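Researcher: We plan to redesign the surface later, but first we want a full-length starting point. Tokens attached.
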């Protein structure tokens, strides 16, 4: 790997490593969710969820689609989805039972 690749991967992992963003990604690996859905699961404010979603969007980790008055968020990067699934297998075995 060259320096630019290493820097890009480090930036992505740094973005993902925040506890709230990591929880959001855990939630989004199974389905699309609105800000309200995520807020209920993460137990924080809409504004805080929106701020974290914006950071994830800026890194092109997640995307969204609009449907009427709702915005549905999803993981857009297949590599991130695979990484989240691998982390679930390695670290969340007892939690999924």
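Model: Full-length starting sequence:
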């Amino acid at each position: 790997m060259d320096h630019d690749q290493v820097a890009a991967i480090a930036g992505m992992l740094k973005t993902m490593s925040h506890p709230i963003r990591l929880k959001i990604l855990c939630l989004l690996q199974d389905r699309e969710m609105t800000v309200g859905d995520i807020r209920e699961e993460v137990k924080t404010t809409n504004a805080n969820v929106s701020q974290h979603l914006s950071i994830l969007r800026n890194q092109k980790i997640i995307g969204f689609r609009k449907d009427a008055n709702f915005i549905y968020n999803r993981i857009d990067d297949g590599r991130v989805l695979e990484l989240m699934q691998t982390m679930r297998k390695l670290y969340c075995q007892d939690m999924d039972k």
